[in-house]
Write a structure and sequence with these properties.
2 copies of one chain form a homodimer. The first copy, chain A, is mainly alpha-helical. The first copy, chain A, has 9 helices and 3 strands. Chain A has helices at about 5-20, 25-35, 45-50, 55-65, 90-105, 105-115, 125-150, 155-165, 165-180; strands at about 40, 70-75, 80-85. Chain A starts with a helix and ends with a helix. At the A-B interface, helix 1, helix 5, helix 6, helix 7 and helix 8 of A face helix 1, helix 5, helix 6, helix 7 and helix 8 of B. Chain A binds a DNA duplex through helix 4.
Chain lengths: ~180, ~180
DNA sequence: CATAGCTTTCATTATTTATTGAAACTTGAG
DNA sequence: CTCAAGTTTCAATAAATAATGAAAGCTATG
């Protein structure tokens, strides 16, 4: 099966963006390819479509699974594994978001926590700790906020985002609202 | 000037995280170093503190300036340039966020827009376009939302984030609120 | 307008990251 | 148990990215 020009362009774009989204070129391409392909694909089909080695596909699959972005399908009487996206676009975006938080924020939060437990021993350390404290608080707020957002239903989340400029107005009323039982 | 062990550990951590945050090791270190150092630093001081070449520092400064994360200070009677963070921790986080949106989302949004203008010419393209449409809508919602958030004052934003689980309750009331004049 | 003091550039080199493909491994069917 | 169809691993290699440092470029001052 060979991709149309437009679809090929999309897949290549995903490749170019791959490293910015947190993986590498090949894995970006694989992800894009699986998203725009209706039927689940075998590893060999992926390798052919992208002109990359079978081994590389195997690595990529492992990585995409670690991000929980793809799932395996089986066809009765066929020993091959077929791969497909592990959910809706929305699900996938959430997974990427979550996974990146884990890689980009959590380790720093943990380092900062440890650092702030020990008392500063001189002025340089005192100033540094103030700064680290600010970073810590910021990251913690973001973390808490993002886990609140995850807790909302997709509908609530959509509704919140669609609020747009209404958000300011809503905020003005929050105190009143939160006092009600 | 030499860093204490704790401060050094923080700077090295910033280096390790650098590439996950969107730059590279050295630039991560430079950023961390400038944040925890009270006084603005010269390029040579930075090179010494991190044991890297003067040329590398120059590159890093250029890059950090393109992210608008640092600014230049001058001391009367001194021809050297002194560098310091270009704002509060909060400001810097915002800048990184904005810049990353520009690099990670905007190009894809643009590609998708172009692609969706042309009609699909067969079933594969039709399916692909449905998927791209979903991605497009998701990215557009996120983009609009993030620009709304940027429009809020830091205080409002803090207050929104601190809402935490209250957000669900507030959402339930939004329809009532938005009807009021 | 010459130069000292500083910054930037960029070709070269070093380091890191990704890819290949052959060999090893796994597994279901006969 | 054996084989064939498939998958994974990993040492070797290729490609991409980052760092160095010498040379070129600026610019404030005498």
């Amino acid at each position: 099966m060979t991709l149309s020009d437009k679809n090929f362009a999309f897949v290549m774009h995903c490749g170019e963006m791959g490293s910015r989204w947190g993986f590498n070129r090949t894995i970006g391409q694989m992800c894009g390819l699986l998203i725009i392909t209706k039927e689940p694909m075998t590893a060999n089909e992926i390798a052919d479509a992208l002109s990359i080695s079978r081994g590389n596909v195997s690595m990529g699959i492992k990585e995409l699974q670690s991000w929980r972005l793809i799932k395996v399908h089986h066809i009765p009487g066929d020993r091959k594994e077929y791969y497909a996206p592990a959910g809706t676009i929305w699900d996938m975006a959430n997974r990427v978001f979550e996974e990146r938080k884990k890689r980009e924020i959590d380790p720093t939060l943990s380092l900062l926590r440890d650092n702030l437990l020990e008392p500063a021993t001189n002025d340089d350390e005192k100033f540094a700790q103030q700064q680290m404290h600010e970073i810590h608080d910021l990251l913690e707020t973001v973390t808490k906020w993002s886990s609140e957002l995850q807790r909302l239903s997709p509908e609530q989340l959509q509704s919140l985002m669609k609020l747009g400029s209404g958000i300011g107005k809503v905020l003005d009323f929050k105190d009143k609202i939160l006092k009600k039982p």
